[in-house]
């Protein structure tokens, strides 16, 4: 039997299938592009060619879009990203003590002891220094994001870039560019700034002990890995499925549950037509923005109302 | 006379005093509604960009009721405790409101020093003058209002939960369910009880802060640190959640103080600003709850 894990994040949607020994059998990494439902469906189209619906014994979802994904696919476990990432890392190595995770909108630090989360922190309301910012800079410099790390590694003389705020960092980068500094040196400087910012902000006051895992989409960036190693003075490990760890964790959590009957609706939902709309509820002064999901003109779900007057109406 | 009371800033703390005082002077009270999206949008539009969210929200509340009343309470609270201060923005709030909002009715501007009845009476006379010429009437309204305020039972102390966290933060963040996305209810739904600082006696807090190397400058710092210290020492809590508005200067000091002092207690800092999307907020709360329950040997999933 297999277990399915889905991580609907701000930038990417990751879907994995693991076996009973938690080995990754299949995986898809897609861009969410602001359309979580479509992303999950795309992923299912790919996976259903390889795995049959009745082979799935449990489903877990995570990520900021975990609730909508859970509703769509029929999940057995819905878990936050922190717990999911920790579970996935621990399944690879029981000795991991620190997890650095940088995703599209979030950055987190998780510290562990004896296989338990002892502390964690996330960026606060500001998303500076996360994947979406690196994406934007890569786009601006017309460098494919996949090569961003290689550029950084080629630099011999990094330029100092302001950290702290993405807007400050960007204007500082532009000013340095205009002075004629090499792109490589600016990119490496940017990696160092982001690491400095992470350590002073998210990881402030946290005990960073090895073994350290670096996961999330930004871990693909070799420049970031090296900047972390230089700043921390020890090796930082990037697991093989670094960009899927959330989804793997969700799948493991589903497997650990040992449920008899999964709620899974099947890979066939890939071919169902869903539509989304939204309206402003005028039921009270909160004026909630409510998202509506429709399937063939029939409303199947509501999201975003605070009181539950809409979302409570439709059985999930 | 119709007196408008905006449901913002220290309204949640001093509501009994102000409503009683004005009612005793024969005023009709117009309260703004609970914070909602319209009020938030008005506040953000009218207020200077650099201000914190609670100040913006207060602007929204004033704007919402300004056409319905003859006088609006804009409390310029300077000091509530001798040799301590509260947020400097409170000292200038009447000027901020006056310069940011057009077509205002009259607003209260007299400063409030509430650490002694004598000092506080100055505000009452200054404000009461608008209603009556009789000092005795004002004095009576003031005494009655103080009595009401003293009878007001503040704070949250949930019972019957397996886990309990200290919820620390300014009252206008903790009791405004719109801007804190109904945090207390969220925690309760997770099976977490809440205790807030008002539950612990002021004298106890004064004793607790004596171990600091210096007397706290901010009243909020003394209250929150004193409360946390007492709660941790007496094992009343499993963790601390600090609810802070983005860019609050006082919070930044208190958060560091608490983190350094209570290293072994699970600590979660939640920052709020204009955001109304709840996903990020929920993730942090849920993960914190997972950590608390796992620490106590509960199940993860």
Notable characteristics:
heterodimer, A: 316 residues, alpha/beta, Nucleotidyltransferase, domain 5, 3 domains, five-stranded mixed sheet, B: 301 residues, Rossmann fold, 13 helices, globular
List the helices and strands and how they pair.
The complex is a heterodimer of chains A (316) and B (301).
Chain A: E1 2-8, E2 12-18, E3 24-31, H1 36-47, E4 56-62, H2 66-73, E5 77-78, H3 81-92, E6 98-102, E7 107-113, E8 116-122, H4 131-141, H5 148-154, H6 166-178, H7 183-200, E9 212-215, H8 222-232, E10 236-237, H9 245-257, E11 274-280, E12 289-295, E13 298-303
Parallel strand pairs in A: 1-4, 4-5, 6-9, 9-10
Antiparallel strand pairs in A: 1-2, 2-3, 6-7, 7-8, 11-12, 12-13
Helix pairs in contact in A: 3-9, 5-7, 5-8, 6-7, 7-8
Chain B: E1 2-5, H1 11-24, E2 28-31, H2 37-46, H3 53-65, E3 71-72, E4 76-79, H4 88-91, H5 93-100, E5 106-107, E6 111-113, H6 117-128, H7 135-151, E7 163-168, H8 171-174, H9 183-189, E8 192-195, H10 202-208, H11 219-233, E9 239-245, H12 249-261, E10 267-272, H13 279-295
Parallel strand pairs in B: 1-2, 1-3, 3-5, 4-6, 7-8, 7-9, 9-10
Mind explaining what this structure looks like?
The complex is a heterodimer of chains A (316) and B (301). Chain A is of the alpha/beta class. Chain A folds into three domains: 2-85 and 246-271, ATPase, nucleotide binding domain (Nucleotidyltransferase, domain 5), CATH 3.30.420; 93-242, ATPase, nucleotide binding domain (Nucleotidyltransferase, domain 5, 2-Layer Sandwich); 273-316, no CATH class. Helices cover 33% and strands 24% of the residues of chain A. Chain A has helices at 36-47, 66-73, 81-92, 131-141, 148-154, 166-178, 183-200, 222-232, 245-257, and strands at residues 2-8, 12-18, 24-31, 56-62, 77-78, 98-102, 107-113, 116-122, 212-215, 236-237, 274-280, 289-295, 298-303. In chain A, α5 (148-154) crosses α7 and α5 crosses α8. The relative contact order of chain A is 0.17. The mean pLDDT of chain A is 90. Chain B has 301 residues and is of the alpha/beta class. Chain B folds into two domains: 2-151, no CATH class; 163-295, Rossmann fold, CATH 3.40.50.11900. Chain B is 47% helix and 14% strand. Chain B is built from 13 helices and ten strands. Chain B has helices at residues 11-24, 37-46, 53-65, 88-91, 93-100, 117-128, 135-151, 171-174, 183-189, 202-208, 219-233, 249-261, 279-295; strands spanning 2-5, 28-31, 71-72, 76-79, 106-107, 111-113, 163-168, 192-195, 239-245, 267-272. In chain B, the strands form three sheets. Chain B has a four-stranded parallel β-sheet, with helices on one face. Chain B has a four-stranded parallel β-sheet with strand order 8-7-9-10, with helices on both faces. In chain B, α12 (249-261) links the parallel β9 (239-245) and β10. The radius of gyration of chain B is 20 Å and the shape is globular. The A-B interface holds A 64-65, 67, 77, 79-83, 87, 105-106, 116-122, 124-126, 205, 253, 256-257, 284-289, 306 and B 33-34, 36-38, 178, 181-182, 246, 259-260, 266-267, 269, 271-273, 275-276, 279-280, 282-284, 286-288, 290-291, 294-295, 300-301.
